[in-house]
Structure formats: C-alpha cells, structure tokens
C-alpha cells in the first residue's frame, strides 16, 4: 500500500487538496471472548447524528443510517470541492461508517538558493513555485526570517529550512514565540513561519538575543480555509470520528522505507505546535477521534527494536501526542508481508512480536493492513494450504501459479490470530492497545488487466468487489474489534455500480466470522458469530457426508445481539443444536449461513471438530 500512497501523494501535489483458522481450532475456552482482558474496552455502538437532515449551499444531506455494513471506517482524501466532501461523508455514514482517517503530508528538508533564499524543489535546483510565493517586504520568507534573527543577534543563522504543505489553517497556539513567528498572507496564499532551535528543544524562553544560535526554519504552506474544522463539523453532523494525520516524518535517503531520525527534533517541534493548536481549538470536540500516524512500517520481529529508526521516530512523535492531546488515541496501520519467496518477510509469530514492539511506542490502535489487495497475504483456511492460490493473486511477485502453502507463511486469519494473542499478552503487562483490521479494497491487478474502470488516480490498482470484501471481514473477523478499509476515495466510489453502491444494495447479507462448539443449557450445539444472522439458515457439511445438514435457526435456534467484548459492534451470535456424536472426529465442518431470503454469505466459516 505504501507505493499507492506515494503515487497518490504525487497526484495530490499536482493539484488535489488532500486532507485506512489456523483458528485456535475455535474452541470456547480459547476464543477471543474467553481470553480477552477485562481492561480492554468493549466495542461501542455508532454515535447519534446531530439531526436527521441538514441543508447547506451544497444541498440537503441525510444523516440517517439505512445500510450499516461490517466495515465502519475509511481512509479519505477530501477534494478542494467541499460539496464532494459532504457527499462523501454522507455516503460513508449511509453504509454505517463512523470513522474517517485523513491522509496527511510530509515534513521535507529543503535546500535554498543562497542568494535569494528561495526554497528549491526537492530533487532539482529550480525554485519551488509553491514557496516562492511566500514573501515579506520584498524578501523571500527565508531571507526575511534570517534578517529578523540576525537583528536579534548577529550570530544567529538558519542552518536548515523545512517545508510542510497542508490544507489546514491554524490558530495562534501554533506559535511559541510570536515576536519571531507569524502568519503570512500573500494574496490568496497563506503561510506560517515557525522558528525552532537546531537542537530540537523548542525553547519556550524565546531568547533570540543573548547569544548566537543555529535555528531551523519551518515554512508551512496552508489552506485558504481550515479543512479540519470543516471535517470535524461534518463529523458532528454525521456522528463520524475523524483521525487527522500527524506530520509525516522525512524519509531516510539511503532507504526510503525508513524514517530519518536526523530530523526528529524538527519533526517533534512541528508536531508539538500543531497539536497545541488542536488542543486549544478541538480538544473537547467529540468528532476528533484521535490522530493517525501516516508513516508506514512493516511488522516483523526485530532483533533490537530500540535500534529501528522508524520506531525511534514513532516513540518521540507519539510522546508529543500524549503530552499535548491526552486521551486522544494514536492510530497506526502497519503492513504485513507473508510471501515466502520475497526477502524480509515474516511469519505470523514474528509479526506478533513486531506488534508488541510497535505497541510500546505509545500507539493505542493498531490496524494492520490485511495484505490481500497487494497480494502480500492470502485469504485461505488452514486446510486449504495445498490449494492453488486465487487466480487474481498469480500476477503478484513472489506468488505466481503456486499453492497457498508454497506462496505464503500463513493466511490473513493466522496473522490476526497471533496479533490478538499479542494484544492480550500486552494487556497482562499493562500495555493497552486495540487491534483493528484494515481490509484493502483493491486488487493486485491494474484496471486494464482486470477490465475494470480506473478509480481516480489509482492507475495501477483496480477496485475489488463486495464478495471479496465480505471474505476479508470473515477471515479477520474473530480477532479484531473494528474493521476499516483503505480507501473510500477512490476505490469505493468509482464504476457503476460502485463498491459503495454494491454495499448499499446488499448490506444485510450474512457474514459469519467464527463458529465454536458451544452447549446451551444441557443441549450440545454450535455457536456462529457474525453480522446479520437473525433467522439464518445454517448448512453443515464435511468430507464424507452425502447430504449436507440444514438447520433453521429461527425455528430451533437462539439469536443474541448483545455486543461481544473485543469484537466489532454489530457482531451477533446465533446458536443451533448439533448432535456431535454424529459428526466424525478430526474433520473440518463447513458452516454456511444464508439469510431468510436465500442470500448466502460470501465465505463459509470452518470448525475443526477435535472430538
């Protein structure tokens, strides 16, 4: 997903204003419910919109939720057209979305022209047109800042210049030293000038005169209006929590997958200033759900996590969040690579160790990418290991025409199961972290290869369909407390029907996530957990059974919608009687669920009957 985001970022910079069995053999004693920590928060239900409808210059918008789907959060790239933005949030809310995650922007160290002080483009000697517009009294903003610093003490100098682009605006709390820092408006362009000591101390004394020092200039190109205020206002309207992105750390030039720790001081200064402003303006806003850490990281078992550059940068940046926005969680969405034939990949147990190391950097929500969209992880059950991989995965580097066992160390379910175990172990150590799933709403193929419409700027990935998305929910299902998806714009909105249209039409199709052997009173049976299971018809089958067994849960079963700890809001339980003496030992029981009108779940679940 990382390169998709980079591609998107390049597109944004050209004109778009941007604002995520091996089951434990599913025995009751080892289910995520039985093993959950009592201190982990139970899943909460959706909030209440501020009204059933509202009207503004963009039209009239409905705030009711007619089609609540299992995926309840989405990455969002708002456009400069705020009416499009409002329609996006209405559509997200309509399918049950209660969370949006904003893609963010990166802090970038830049060279400047020594004569003019103009900021240069990242990879050339040409002036960057965006920052060339920043002038004060006939001087470039860099030269004006240097002049002011040297007026305070001739020994002062700017040793590094950084730029940061956003479509937000900020209040006065972004300034530590108003005598040297300021908002600069040039026509319709808005800039902020921040000055920070080179040592990263962000000295509150604002003493620029007693001795000469080296300083870093942070030049922010801001929006004409504050996009975050607008997004939070819409969040209040639609009962949606917003996770704006933290400033993205500069990348290590020697390895762009890593954050560059040389810039930690300036990154934390910028982060502190922005979060101080958020705290002053938004700390009490219900719609501010937390913040998003946008620098992507691959989960693996590091020999010494303290020496991992990106984790070092995370820890310092996350410490600022804890100080400036207490009570607001940090969300991060690392990726997993399960391919056997590619270097630097990891087994499920190795990923679980990486999960623990990541949690200790101060994040409260970890939403690992499930990897199916990129083809880094496959959707398969334990007894499918010798099956050929899905045809749509064969084009993936390191996969090809292979079996699941030869292509991958494990499937989606294996990885989430191990991470859920790591989450519970962390809780016993006093480290509280939520495990969410980020299900990728795209395919490894290009639109041309899959004969599907191109989704906005996504020229190298095609969108997926609802059956596969349902399957992703099933495979991650029993181990996570929320399911979110990368990303709404553009994968859910392109084509006819769009993926969001498919969901709105088929939102209440059953999705099973787990089956466990469970007695009720004195009667043996099977409990199925999942979404939209009321009056479900359950079909049981296994190898060697001539005629599948069909059970009408509405007639002989039991249905319970009570929220389940550590599972997403909306997960229900349906129980049916099963005479286990008639089921052979050591078979995988296929459990298919159908709705009252005959619609079958896209993916069955399996229970290993160990006798």
Defining traits:
disordered N terminus, single chain, five-stranded mixed sheet, alpha/beta, 611 residues, five-stranded parallel sheet
In short, what is this structure?
The protein is an alpha/beta fold and 611 residues long.
Topology:
Layout: H1 2-13, E1 53-56, E2 59-62, E3 73-76, H2 82-94, E4 99-102, E5 107-110, H3 129-132, E6 135-136, E7 139-140, H4 141-152, E8 157-165, E9 182-186, E10 189-197, E11 214-222, H5 227-238, E12 241-243, E13 251-252, E14 255-259, H6 264-282, E15 291-293, H7 309-324, E16 330-332, H8 348-359, E17 365-366, H9 404-407, H10 412-428, E18 434-435, E19 437-440, E20 442-443, H11 447-450, E21 462-463, H12 466-476, E22 483-486, H13 488-492, H14 499-506, E23 511-517, E24 525-531, E25 537-541, E26 549-552, H15 553-556, E27 558-560, E28 572-577, E29 587-594, E30 605-609
Parallel strand pairs: 3-4, 3-22, 4-12, 8-11, 15-16, 16-17, 17-18, 19-22
Antiparallel strand pairs: 1-2, 5-8, 6-7, 9-10, 10-11, 13-14, 20-21, 23-24, 24-28, 25-26, 25-29, 27-28, 29-30
Helix pairs in contact: 2-5, 6-7, 8-10
Shape: elongated
Helix content: 25-40%
Largest sheet: 5 strands, parallel
DSSP, total strands: 30
Please explain how this structure is put together.
There is one protein chain. With 611 residues, the chain is an alpha/beta fold. The chain is 25% helix and 22% strand. It has 15 helices and 30 strands. A hairpin with a 2-residue loop joins strand 9 (182-186) and strand 10.
């Amino acid at each position: 997903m990382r390169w998709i985001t980079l591609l998107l970022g390049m597109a944004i910079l050209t004109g778009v204003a941007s604002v995520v069995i091996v089951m434990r053999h599913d025995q009751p004693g080892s289910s995520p419910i039985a093993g959950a920590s009592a201190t982990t928060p139970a899943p909460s239900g959706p909030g209440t919109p501020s009204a059933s409808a509202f009207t503004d210059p963009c039209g009239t918008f409905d705030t009711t939720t007619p089609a609540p789907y299992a995926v309840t959060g989405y990455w969002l790239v708002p456009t400069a057209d705020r009416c499009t933005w409002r329609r996006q949030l209405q559509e997200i809310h309509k399918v049950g979305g209660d969370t949006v995650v904003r893609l963010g922007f990166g802090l970038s160290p830049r060279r400047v022209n020594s004569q003019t002080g103009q900021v240069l483009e990242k990879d050339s000697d040409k002036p960057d047109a965006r920052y060339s517009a920043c002038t004060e009294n006939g001087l470039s903003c860099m030269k004006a800042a240097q002049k002011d610093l040297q007026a305070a003490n001739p020994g002062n100098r700017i040793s590094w210049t950084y730029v940061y682009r956003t479509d937000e605006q900020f209040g006065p709390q972004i300034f530590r030293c108003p005598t040297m820092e300021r908002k600069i408006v040039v026509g319709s362009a808005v800039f902020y000038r921040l000055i920070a000591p080179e040592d990263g101390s962000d000295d509150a004394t604002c003493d620029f005169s007693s001795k000469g020092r080296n300083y870093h200039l942070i030049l922010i190109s801001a929006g004409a209006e504050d996009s975050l205020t607008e997004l939070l206002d819409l969040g209040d309207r639609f009962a949606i929590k917003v996770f704006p992105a933290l400033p993205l750390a500069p990348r290590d030039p020697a390895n762009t997958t890593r954050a560059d720790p040389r810039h930690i001081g300036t990154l934390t200064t910028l982060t502190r200033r922005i979060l101080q402003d958020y705290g002053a303006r938004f700390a009490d806003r219900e719609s501010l759900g937390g913040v998003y850490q946008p620098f992507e990281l691959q989960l693996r078992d590091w020999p010494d996590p303290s020496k991992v550059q990106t984790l070092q940068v995370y820890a310092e940046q996350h410490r600022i969040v804890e100080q400036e926005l207490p009570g607001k969680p940090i969300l991060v969405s690392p990726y997993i690579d399960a391919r056997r034939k590619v270097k630097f990949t990891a087994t499920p147990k190795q990923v679980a160790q990486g999960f623990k190391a990541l949690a200790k950097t101060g994040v409260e929500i970890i939403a690992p990418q499930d990897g199916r969209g990129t083809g880094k992880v496959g959707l398969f059950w334990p007894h499918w290991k010798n099956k050929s991989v899905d045809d749509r995965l064969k084009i993936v580097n390191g996969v090809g025409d292979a079996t699941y066992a030869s292509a991958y160390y494990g499937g989606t379910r294996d990885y989430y199961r191990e991470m859920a175990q790591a989450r519970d172990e962390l809780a016993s150590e006093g480290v509280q972290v939520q495990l969410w799933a980020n299900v990728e709403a795209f395919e490894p193929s290009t639109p041309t290869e899959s004969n599907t419409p191109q989704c906005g700027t996504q020229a190298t990935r095609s969108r997926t369909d609802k059956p596969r998305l349902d399957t992703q929910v099933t495979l991650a299902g029993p181990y996570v407390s929320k399911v979110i998806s990368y990303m709404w714009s553009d994968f859910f909105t392109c084509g006819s029907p769009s993926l969001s249209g498919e969901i709105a039409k088929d939102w209440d199709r059953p999705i099973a996530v787990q089956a466990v052997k469970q007695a009720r009173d004195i009667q043996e049976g099977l409990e199925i957990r999942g979404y939209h299971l009321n009056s479900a018809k359950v079909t049981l089958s296994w190898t060697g059974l001539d005629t599948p067994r069909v059970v009408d849960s509405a007639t002989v079963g039991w249905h319970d919608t009570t929220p389940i700890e550590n599972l997403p809001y909306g997960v229900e339980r349906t129980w049916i009687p099963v005479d286990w003496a008639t089921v052979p030992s050591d078979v995988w029981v296929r459990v298919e669920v159908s709705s009252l009108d005959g619609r079958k779940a896209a993916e069955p679940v399996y229970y290993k009957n160990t006798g």
